Amino acid sequence: MTRVFNIISKEFLLASRSGYEVFLPIVYLLIIMMFFNISISYVEKDIMLELLPLMTWISCLLICILNLENIFKEDYDDGTLEMFLMKKEGIELDIMIKILSHWLLSNLPIVIAAPLVAIALGLDFGTTSTLFITLLIGTPTMSLIGSIAAALTISLKKNKILVSVIVLPLYVPILIFGTSAVNNSFFKINYDTEITLMIFLFFIFLLLTPLACSKALKISLD
Amino acid sequence: MHNIVIEIQDISLSRNDNNILEDISFKIERSKALNLYGLNGSGKTSLLNIIAGITEPTSGYINNISGDENIFHKIVYIGHKYGIKGNLTVKENLSYSLHDNNQNNDALISNALDIYKMTDLKNRLTKNLSHGQQKKVSLMKTLILDSLLWIIDEPYSALDNKSIEIFNTTVKKFLDNGGSLLMTSHSEMKNSLFALDNYRIKQ
After folding, report:
1. Domain spans of chain A?
2. CA A79, CA A77: separation in Å to the nearest integer?
């Protein structure tokens, strides 16, 4: 437990000293949602409200992709990743703690901010709650998937596009289940299946990621 | 206690049909320092990475014959990149290194800062230090971590004469206490403060 706390406290300390970067995900979210609101201002309010949770979901997905490369990049650049990989045991646990830190710092703020923005734009409380729940389940899965892609491409100087290309097909099921759940919630239709499938995906990648990531990092450093 | 710590046996490494290392074998002994030397691109760093467990060799073995099961947990590795965080202070960097190895001892940090004459800079962010000072922060890890083997890639690069002297003194003390050093340089080293075996890496 101390180990988990140490790694997370280190990541938070580094984030607090990184300047404005820590606020970028929320800034991106606000910009996208503002433009979205302006661009469909001529559409009827009912249609706008129907599209709002879907648009919020897509915005969150894109923002998640944008900050994926940060998971291991700094550690690779300063050499701490090499020391991290020297350990014969516990690499997988350390990787999971790093992904958790990344999610807490980059994605959790969006998970909290997105429903607030949706409420401010007039979305009902029920759909907003579903939006929050689906993002709460979906974004950790996206971080897990993204960390594998980030690990595979870490040694490339400009890896952002490649990371996006790798993760996009894998994000599609999460996007489908997430948007389907909020859409069903909007029309007061049962969405338990979508939530169950999202939880299922989360656990699959929770099991796969530590091993895949440690292998990918070792290959990238070779 | 076995005198040989680690045996490197027939290590080969190839990438994209290029042989980087071919059948390298030697032993790392207790209380001995070994200098791997060779030209740029001769595979020195690759070999260090293999021994440190960062890279997998194409063939060959790294055998632990020290009698200490935890030998691979007691390696301090300092590579080309120093492994320190620019946005952490000198003291925080050392402190987190100790935490990463489940150790916690402020006295060790103070002692290391004192030895490398960096006490005045302990609260400065390492990104604001010179290249040589950053190198010294990374070398300080050798003093605070519980270790049996130091693997250091070009330890003397970026260091001034005074710092080289300090480093040599710390190595001598470490070797006297039964530790081992594996380091690299571009040329054979003579007149070292401590007994140094030179092993040439051929391309």
Report:
1. 21-221
2. 6
pLDDT at position A206 over 60: yes
A21 touches chain B (CB under 8 A): no
Domain-wise residue ranges, chain B: 1-74+180-203
The whole-number pLDDT of residue B133 equals 93
CA distance B187 to A166: 44
Residue of A nearest to B102 (CA): A3
Within 8 A of A10 by CB-CB distance, chain B residues are 85, 88, 96, 99
Alpha helices in B79-197 (DSSP H): 90-100, 106-115, 131-144, 161-176
Q: What confidence score (pLDDT) does residue B37 get? A: 83
What pLDDT is stored for residue B42 in this prediction?
81
Any alpha helices (H) in chain B, and if so which ranges? 44-52, 90-100, 106-115, 131-144, 161-176
Residue-wise burial string across B63-93, b where 16 or more C-beta atoms lie within 10 A, e elsewhere: eeebeeeebbbbbbbbbebbbbbbbbbbbbb
Q: Is the Cβ pair A222, B56 closer than 8 Å?
A: yes
Which residues of chain B carry a pLDDT beneath 50? Answer: 203
Residue A73: its chain B contacts at CB < 8 A? none
Other Cβ atoms less than 10 A from the Cβ of A169: the count is: 9
Within B38-160, where are the H helices? 44-52, 90-100, 106-115, 131-144
Instruction: Write down the ipTM of this complex.
Output: 0.82
At residue B120, the pLDDT reads 93
* Maximum C-alpha span of chain B: 50
Tokens standing for residue A216? 């990918």
**Closest Cα in chain A, distance from residue B122 (Å):** 17
Q: What does pLDDT average to over chain A? A: 90
CATH superfamily membership of B1-74+180-203: P-loop containing nucleotide triphosphate hydrolases (3.40.50.300)
